[in-house]
Write a structure and sequence with these properties.
The chain contains eleven helices and no strands. The protein is mainly α.
Length: 207
């Protein structure tokens, strides 16, 4: 996979942190019983109003997404009491947890996706991330006990492929395109996730 130079990678991480700080600031204000405007969120996150609008096209888009950060399954909870080192089992379990969260928050996630697509289509991103990468941590935690069984290349490809299955985008494909219900979608994703892990292990073994 292509590598970023140190400076570029540093800027990308900083932009991700800024976006996450804005979401966290909005979540704190909402938890305090306030319905903040963009000025209030920017002040809470200690950034300018202009910066906040670079990351979110509207206060509505920000407030829709803010509560979702806290709804993401914590790997420590997902794997509590589960000592299995089997990466296929762990990936399937992680996806099941995120699957439940996605369908439970379907309306908010659809609004979030719509806002991010509109922001990108209008060319307003100016190099800033339009989405949080919430699935990567869960995937990494699931694969951690078996990390040594993968080559660097097979591991990176596996994580990228699994990112297509984890998250709300697959819900859109299964529901809107294929017309599958939640239970059927989960069965297909379980099969696909396990197949990808097996393929990556086989590729690594050959090397």
């Amino acid at each position: 996979m292509p590598k970023l130079d140190v400076a570029t990678a540093g800027r990308a991480k900083q932009r991700q942190r800024t976006r996450k700080d804005l979401l966290a600031a909005a979540a704190r204000l909402l938890k305090a019983g306030r319905t903040p405007d963009m000025d209030a969120v920017a002040a809470e996150a200690m950034v300018s109003r202009a910066t906040a609008y670079r990351y979110f096209p509207s206060i509505e888009a920000l407030l829709v997404e803010a509560p979702l950060d806290g709804a993401i399954p914590d790997p420590r909870d997902v794997f509590a009491g589960d000592d299995s080192p089997d990466p296929a089992h762990r990936i399937d379990k992680a996806e099941a947890a995120l699957h439940e969260m996605v369908y439970r928050n379907e309306a908010q996630l659809r609004l979030m996706l719509a806002a991010s697509l509109e922001h990108k289509a209008k060319g307003l991103t100016d190099g800033v991330p339009v989405r949080q990468n919430r699935r990567a941590g869960l995937i990494a935690a699931a694969l951690a006990p078996a990390r040594g069984r993968f080559t660097r290349s097979s591991y990176e490809k596996l994580c990228a492929a699994l990112a297509l299955i984890f998250g709300p985008e697959s819900m859109i494909v299964f529901g809107d395109v294929l017309g599958l219900d939640e239970r059927s979608a989960r069965r297909v994703k379980s099969w696909a996730a396990r197949a990808l892990v097996r393929a990556a292990l086989e590729e690594a073994a050959k090397r």
